[in-house]
Fold these 2 entries.
Entry 1:
Amino acid sequence: MMHNESITEQLHSLTIGKYSSKELTENYIHRIKQLKHLNCFISVLEESALQTAADADQARYKGKVGPLTGIPIAHKDIFCTKNIATTAGSQMLHNYIAPFDATVVIKIAAAGAITIGKTNMDEFAMGSSNETSYYGAVQNPWDTDRVPGGSSGGSAAAVAAGLCSAATGTDTGGSIRQPSAHCGITGLKPTYGRISRWGMIAFASSLDQAGPMTRTAEDAALLLALMAGGDPKDSTCIRDDVPNYLEYLNTTLEGARIGVCDDFFADGLEAKSEEVIQDALKIFEQLGATTKSVKLPHIKYSVPAYYVIAPAEASTNLSRYDGVRFGYRCKDPENLNDMFKRSRSEGFGDEVKRRIMTGAFTLSTGYYDAYYRKAQQIRRLIKNDFHQAFNEVDFLIGPTAPQPAFMLGEKTESHIDMYLQDIYTIAANLAGLPAMSIPIGFSSKLPVGLQLIGNYLAEGTILSAAHQYQKRTDWHKCFPMMTTSESQR
Amino acid sequence: MKIDNEIVENIAELTQLEIAQEELSVIGDKMSEVLALVEEMQAVDTSGIEPVSNPLDVTQTLRPDIVTSEDNREIYQSFAPETRNGLYLVPKVID
């Protein structure tokens, strides 16, 4: 069926005329309506998507074909889209119509893709369950009582449920990889700076990175090649040439050295998830790779360092929301200060406010050295640990999340429990390394993800390893059984 | 470190957030929990370690100093809460 095909398969079908882009888009729109209860989308762009699809069919007929012509893609609602609401999952931006397109949006559209909608997310990407969204929680397509993960939960659930061909996401501490694991899809966070952050609403600027969320590693390679590259509008963006990642895919795993860190398998990792990961490791060995135990002595300090750095940067980034130029403004402010305070207090959700305040505290006079500077130094030690490890191995493998998707509401009371969901993913953000999650099996009928972490700009290495694994296995082809919104009533 | 009501009030002022009196201790407790979590860092000797602010250890690059932005005032003000004659309106500051 067209909705659970990969982009590569869909491009082939479009080329041979098996179906048109209009039919593909109509099918997705129909499914989005049928599965409305999943709450994957904040905006569905039915009219413009169908128009772009018709145009894409015309272009294809005339032989004007780009690498994504006629493929419906969803954007996380953190990417600015011109003349379309861009909310970042917050009430603060409920009325914000972006006046420009993010670089990622421009690049994907230039390749011929159709923007089918904007996906739900944790408010300002702060969360690991999609439950902090002002627009409501997203349901996991594999079990609708469970979370899809977060913060790119809408994107992950939409891809998993067959509501779009692929989606974009952003990852500050695991926000692409953890929901990808929970929803059984492939998600890649590239090297920090590989993809432009222009037009991507900022959370923690030294950690934020965009990436593709897809059905296969091959699709992720295709999208990354289109999304990556220097951008004069983002001075932290890497200007190095973008390799042809698709060419990397057929590199065999013969002789590849895989690092396994014991800390990744410490207490807290669910037993069945560990078993599934060990099974996956055996497949990598059968494909010709060797595994080696590596030490990352400071990795256990990733979560503490992250929960200083990310809130500190967030407190600065989110100071721009003041009710003056755009976004939410409180009703009948008494004076300027009242307007600032009430607009921010009413416009932001609890988790966002908590992080802003924690961040401001760690940056305040008398505490800066003990918290912020200390965290930045730990960040150096974590970076050095990886540097050391990559002298011995080509990439690292471990779990993406400590357990499969948890129940909606299960962790909303304990924010610390929620923070620990990102225990395996945060280190790659602190070090700025590329990392991805691929589906490798199930624990109690819920998908389990495997994380691959590569060296700087070695996206090709982990993408090819993932692709080789996916050529040998079928986990990425598993599709959830779902009931329609109608039958749920 | 324990975050008491006084600190919460001070931080709320710095971050321009309004916190109800009964919420102060709730937020203080939650912040204290986060600080207890990050306290683990103190076990590491970091003397002489260079802090990381950009994971790639690069400084930001500069582009040629030429105007590239267009004048989009009307578009930008179209979604502003309140404007008049091309200006953003806020409550009266000076009587």
Entry 2:
Amino acid sequence: MADQGSAAPGTAVEKREAPIPSAGTAVVRSDRVENPGFPPYRPRVSDLDPKKERQNERRVAWFFWASIIGTVFAITAYIAFPIVEGDMASVRLNNGLLGLGIALALLSIGLGAVHWSKALMDGHDLVEQRHPTRGSEETRARAAEIFTLGNKESGFTRRKLIRNSLIGALAVMPLPAIVIFRDLAPAADPNALLKHTMWEKGMRLTKDPNGVPIKASDVTLGSVFQVIPEGLYDTEHPLEEKAKAAVLLMRLKPEDLHVSPGRESWNYDGIVAYSKICTHVGCPVALYEQQTHHLLCPCHQSQFDITHEAEVIFGPAKRPLPQLPISVDAEGYLVAQSDFHEPVGPSFWERVHD
Amino acid sequence: MTDTMERPSTTGATQAQEGPGRGMRFTNWAANWVDERTSMSGLVKELGRKIFPDHWSFMLGEVALYSFIVILLSGTFLTFFFQASMAPVEYEGSYAPLKGLEMSSAMASTLDISFDIRGGLLMRQIHHWAALLFVASIGLHMLRIFFTGAFRKPRELNWVVGFVLFVLAMGEGFTGYSLPDDLLSGNGLRIIDGMIKGVPVVGTWISYLLFGGEFPGEAIVGRLYTLHILLLPALVVAAIGVHMVLLIVNKHTQFAGPGRTNDNVVGVPIMPVFAAKAGGFFFIIFGVIALVASTVTINPIWNYGPYDPSPISAGTQPDWYIGFADGALRLVPPGWEFQLGPYTVSMNILIPILVLVLFLLVVALYPFFEAWITGDKREHHIADRPRNAPMRTAIGAAGVTFYAALWAAASSDLIATHFRLAVEGVTHAIQALLIFGPIIAGVVTHRVCIALQKKDREIALHGYESGRIVRLPGGEYIEVHEPLSDFERWKLVSFEEYQPLMVRPDARGRITAGQRLRASISRFFFEDRISPVTQTELEAAHSDHH
């Protein structure tokens, strides 16, 4: 179909001037200091002295030759200083010499090119005029005309039924692209998973990472153990289990512990076990201050007081670290009485919701 | 569009016409061959002599661009060897202390790159240093744009594009940091997981979907890898393309100087001077990164070991550009979490996220805010000296202080151990700094700017102090002031001045709340102001002296 507008471009449009944009609250003065115009050109030594010019020319060439030397050096270093297995010094040497060669090759090209441009290329400033960013009035009028024609010829705004159903179709069309991401994760509800760890009644507390069971008699006063459940590394997903089940074991004097009702039997003779996963955003709470019995999270400095059931005494965390109820089995090894009584780790929306 | 004008005084007789040599004949043939198939001559005509103004601060954006190219080159090398998989393997490489340890393929292949592939460690370190430089130079570039007002019309959109690049760069940084699956990167992901879980209603599910099950799972490294080497780089390249096209359309800003006006661009042409300078500068940036990478270790993952949810070392730090986010988490006072019926609301996570988002939003939208206050619809191509826009500079200083406080908080534990202070004391001090620091910095900066403007006025009117003391016949001592040349003075007197907005009733005789708000902010901005020296004042000052 013939473009009606193109037969006589801009005929329907009067020649218009662009409006002068508002200066807002800017102060416009009549007696501004006048722009003095360009200062005279200050010649460089290489403009005036042909000797200096040749000197600079040689200097630039030297830079480029130095670059070639750097490249050769880098390749030589790559071959001449191989990595010897188990020898850290050889790695360092290979890395350092290869890198220095490459650095020399690159820097020399760069410095040579910049020196060339500054010392030898024409040093005069040039001037270019700016134009308003907005299109000329003719261009804008033609653009508006094209849109009008497009609308008229397609009937986009006139045929509301078509337009609205198209908008509707386009709006819902991306939904499958969202839905198909459901299987990024398995079908199971994460809530159930987050609320349980692998700890269960009678499961032994073992040392992290060797899995050796811990006897209550081994836990001396003031000592601290990094603990994992027995058989952790035989599970299907040991890291996921460990991210929930990691525990810190400490022995305090029983009289230092302030035990709340219902938890009297959760410690064994001053030995207490707390989740190692911070209740803030889940870092391992790894730093134990033996003198004060405080646990410190190295990520965001939340502090937990073990004498008061790991309540928060400083930092962004809100909840105390969950306590793992423990006792000893017939052979004197420390065992869990049950799983934690609340979800471990960072808070989440459905944490206390069933 | 770009009709380059050579000033008459500059066109010397230096370009001697030579007869075509053999090399020239080939060049001519090749240029003709290309042009007859592509119309390339049009592009060369448009852009070849485009003028770029010169100032050291204009290089910051170039640093960002060139370090991104270095990132692309070194990153491509790394992809040839890196295995983006969390499948457990036994490490059998040549780094003895970790031999026989079970770890993910990602970690093992990163160790192989470091210890078994010649130049691999160098490429890793070039990639990491270049990434740190990339984000840093974007940040400095943004500060330059902000403090010189180069975001004003017609460049507001390009500011937003640049802002998007800044956010993308941080995303690239974080996804890359997480790929080796070492202890530090795993803990970084653990923090992200904790933050996502703190989001109401959807947090638990988003974390679950992102990690492909429970944390850490075996999916996240592969997924971040796709983001890191495909999606995010594509977006970065696209945004850089838009950024450059708008740069060409808008042309570069320039600082005020004799002969420079709002309607011209004064500087060097792309061909040959700018091309040589900028091309050379690329090699210098690449060279400096290579120099640093060959001499300074970065991210020694072999010291951290593979990720394990239980161990962690004290004094862990994120890469510098994530510091402000980590710091925001650290500054939350205890107890900001509550129950809403059966649901848990983690304000200790939500507030920092909200603060960060708001801060970034303010940065992104500032150009539109300032345009609304001044009501100035003209194009601005002369970059302001920061002192000549005192309130903008004060706001910038306040923002920098706010960011710096968050950033410092990410190292609160290191500050405490290094200076033998209590970590609680350091945290409380930074909390105070976060709230009062920006106010103090803003007020001080505002006063300093106005003082500098007064000083400029003084110098423009009466010349600069020569240090020469003269005793007059009457016994009076004076210091001789040397007058400025017109060229020097122009830099001190050519700036825009705004006055506070007066509220006036609109056509219907009403004063809207929006107008009132705008007027009061405008008053806050421009109440204290120093006017540029006028010609009248200049003449009066001169007749005083002589």
